[in-house]
Amino acid sequence: MVSPYKISVTVRNTLQEARNTLSSNLIEQARLEAELLLAHVLDVKKEDLVIHPNRELTDSQEENFQQLIERRCRKEPLAYIIGHREFWSLPFKVNRKVLIPRPETEGVIEHLLDLAGEEATKKVLSILDVGTGSGILAIVAALEFPRARVIAVDNSNDALEIAQENIHRHQVVEQIETFKMNFMCPWTLSEDDLYDYILSNPPYISSKDFEQLMPDVRDYEPRVALDGGPDGLACYRHIISKAFPYLKPGGCLIFEVGEDQAEAVKRYLQDHGGLDGIAIIQDLSGRDRVVSARRVLG
Known about the structure:
This protein is of the alpha/beta class.
């Protein structure tokens, strides 16, 4: 006989079951991810789950949550499942057409702030973001420098659509222009435009290493945003040569680099000529993460 009483599905027991499922599928942060997924389904803050552990889920909420857990167990990245990722303490829309923002990329913005100095917020700066993806560098630069004019370029129309949504979300439409441009081909920017800062987080995984990436990355994130050619350095060589004429005298080129790539990028900058003040900046883990150079004056 079927019991007339249905066992209530609460936040507490739903989370416990989800944590066990995620853990058994080798998801490292099973507890946190279960909470974030359930908060997404219930449209509440993660903290609300702790405050209301006995809240009951509707049948549709339970079904939706189980579907999301199944997707995560198949190694689909959490950010794609919930549709956003935090960067610089701000939410950014993401999907499988764009790279998921990483915390280490904040080093590019931190170094930009260091180079520009405190007075830069009062200046009318011109900034170019090469390979903008979801628009994180362009948008944060615009927010940090309210008088800046920012150009964001990418080769993907899909990525530029996401960037535009994020630009509107963070209300920097008046500061940022987006253009489709393949930065591995001759540049099609106006020759009259010169920039104080050119930023880029280009693809830097070598083609042979791409297949060894975690399935969360290899099978879901866009390869075009990750694969930097046979040695992972193809984009750096091209951008250095093409970006130089667009830098103002005294203007700076700032790259994020992959592990063990900083010295090679430094050599390319040195070999190009016309650049000095080359710096390698480490992240909080002590890894070389950002490389910059300044166009010589005169």
